[in-house]
Amino acid sequence: MNFKDRFLQISEFLAPYKSMWVNEIIELYPDGLEAYPREWIELLDTLDDDQLYRLDCLSDYGLIENSELGQWMKRMNELCQVQLKEIPETENLPDWAFNKVKGKKRHEILILAEVLKEIQNDKAFSHLVDIGGGVGHLARVMAHYKGIECISLDINQEFQELGKKRLEKYPKPPQGRDVKFITHDFTHELEGEMTKKIFTKDSFSLGLHTCGPLAIKHIDCALKNQTRGLLNFGCCYNRLDPESDINISDFAKAHGQEGFNTFTFTLASRGHSSMTKEDFIHKRRVKDYRYALHIYFHDILGIKELIPVGDSHHREYWKDFGEYALSKIEKIGMETQWKKEDFDKFFAQDSLQKSLNQLFKANIIRWQLGRTLELYILLDRILYIEQSGKKAQLLQFFSSDLSPRNIGVLYTE
Ligand SMILES: C[S@@+](CC[C@H](N)C(=O)[O-])C[C@H]1O[C@@H](n2cnc3c(N)ncnc32)[C@H](O)[C@@H]1O
């Protein structure tokens, strides 16, 4: 992939849809739907729940391929194609290697174990530093079963204590190597010469799902200390700071888009997240209830700004709207003269149901931009690495069903 070309294509693609990716739809209520072509919403209205689910969650646009909306989705799909990393066959490990490690993490660790071993064979590195290593599952597997010395660094002492206990419980096999835990907030330099001792020229560092700005800190640290290589997977883009954490490369500064905000980053975090049909139906219900409550605040009480009402337990959204609304209103300390029946009647109105339907369909259109925005963020990072003279790769490592944040930024020297 030519990263600059792809970045330009994505940036140009995103430009005309800026009002979709900088605004949450309900923020703009009662306006905001102008950005969403009426024919696109009408087309979605012809699909049943199953077809909508397939389109929204599985990017299956086959049914509408010949429409303008279908072509729009097809183009994004092309822009988001990333080369799959060829993974050597994964080795079976003893059961206790993954005791209490969930399926998704197990999948990621098994793949990374092979990938890191392959890198080790090619560019022998002295040790692996796992940034944001959490409990240290990956470090433990690498040290115990792949013979690679590991340092697991994380801000969370509790996670690390669990990891240490686990090392005592399942001692290393005879050929295994050590895992060292360092508790540290990686946004700050380690004390004294520690950083240099850890991030040596012979070391390799990994950041698996480094949340928000942690990914950029990781890249900066590896570049500054000239480590042998880096493999980074971002996540939680919603934690990025729009002022400092986007358009970090000179190329993006010159040719990228402006206006990224928390809504944009939240949308990027959504890209490719796997969802069952039941999750999709629930998502619609949550949106309907939240939006209906906002419309009540806006239209009936005259409150124009969006009031955060917070998440509720799954079951709360399946009670009558009146019950949901009254409990939210009480929780946020507001008062209302309306009784449950008034809210239920309000919710059942045809005009409200029509508005909620349009908002939901517009949301489906908006959500499709998630993966493209993620690619924009990752390409910016890779161009940033390349401007330091490194040759980097952007590859898909994990299966999308199991692990949505599956694209890694890799360089080795
Ligand atoms: C999404 S989790 C990923 C954990 C692990 N790498 C995995 O893939 O299972 C992100 C980890 O980064 C850690 N973290 C977040 N901010 C950090 C910081 N500033 N310094 C060090 N660790 C941090 C968190 O405590 C958490 O363990």
Q: Topology, pairings included?
A:
Blueprint: H1 3-14, H2 18-22, H3 38-45, H4 49-58, H5 68-79, H6 103-122, E1 128-131, H7 137-146, E2 150-154, H8 157-169, E3 179-183, H9 194-198, E4 204-211, H10 214-224, E5 229-235, H11 250-255, H12 262-270, H13 277-300, H14 321-331, H15 340-348, H16 350-367, H17 370-386, E6 392-396, E7 407-412
Parallel strand pairs: 1-2, 1-4, 2-3, 4-5
Antiparallel strand pairs: 5-7, 6-7
Helix pairs in contact: 1-17, 3-16, 6-7, 12-17, 13-16, 14-15
S-adenosylmethionine (SAM) is lined by residues 105, 132-134, 154-156, 159, 185-187, 208-209, 211, 214, 235.
Q: Short summary of the structure?
A:
Helices cover 48% and strands 10% of the residues.
Describe it for me?
A 7-stranded mixed sheet has the order 3-2-1-4-5-7-6, sandwiched between helices. Helix 10 links the parallel strand 4 and strand 5. It has 17 helices and 7 strands. The longest helix is centred in the C-terminal third of the chain and has 24 residues. The chain has 2 domains: 138 residues, no CATH class; 209 residues, Vaccinia Virus protein VP39 (Rossmann fold). The protein is globular, with a radius of gyration of 24 Å. The mean pLDDT is 93. The protein has 413 residues and is α/β, with parallel strands linked by helices. The structure holds S-adenosylmethionine. The site of S-adenosylmethionine has 16 residues, from strand 4.
